[in-house]
Amino acid sequence: MARTRIKICGVRDVETALIAAECGADAVGLVFAPSSVRRIDPGWAWEIACALPPFVAKVGLFVDAGASRYHEVMERCPCDYGQLHGSESVGEVRECGPRVIKAVLFDAATIEAEFEKWNGVAEVEALLVDGGAGGEGRALDWAALARVREACEHPIILAGGLTAENVGEAIRVVRPWAVDVSSGVESSRGVKDAALIEAFCEAVRAADAG
User: Fold this and answer.
1) CB-based contacts of 71: which residues, under 8 Å, 6+ apart?
2) CATH at 117
3) Could you list the mean pLDDT of each consecutive 10-residue stretch along the chain, which spans 210 residues?
4) Could you tell me which of 25, 122, 156, 181 has the fewest CB atoms within 10 Å of its CB?
5) Which residue stretches of the chain are H helix?
6) Domain count of the chain?
7) Is there a contact between 113 and 14 (Cβ–Cβ < 8 Å)?
8) pTM of the model
9) Measured distance CA(82)–CA(103) in Å, rounded
């Protein structure tokens, strides 16, 4: 089994970003959605991005921002990937590409149709399958996702309600390319906890080791 990549989302300060990197995170998420408690100004986000060591990816998260606003923010804080976490159309995603991570809400009745919708979109690098709106900590039915994962032609990033206690089981069931955590490594809403980040990354490595 390949190594499961780790993304710590909703990072709002340099210290947390460096802790995530030291613990083994492959990516940090910088939230630019105005309605989010984890929202960060693009200027400060760039300070965080510049502090990160090489090979730790920066992911800018947007919710129905529109291509114009998307590119405006990405010019102020260039990120390795843009994560679109709203109801963006195929056309909007293509305008924001390349290197887009498209988030989709898991529903057993519609997830295969979602996979089919995005399979042919070259601008999409990966699909993030979430149990709810970003940062809500709502888990999804991992077994149901596992049954249809082969229908997805993009790498799958698993999100939603993941913690150090359950991420190992989630990895064993779904076998995603990556896992994404935000509220699951927080001591309070929007406040990241170093010990929880470390425990989460260790749990992912333990699951990969079998």
Assistant:
1) 96
2) 3.20.20.70
3) 92 98 98 96 97 98 97 98 97 97 96 96 97 69 96 97 97 97 95 98 96
4) 122
5) 14-23, 42-51, 67-76, 90-96, 111-119, 142-148, 167-174, 194-209
6) 1
7) no
8) 0.95
9) 11
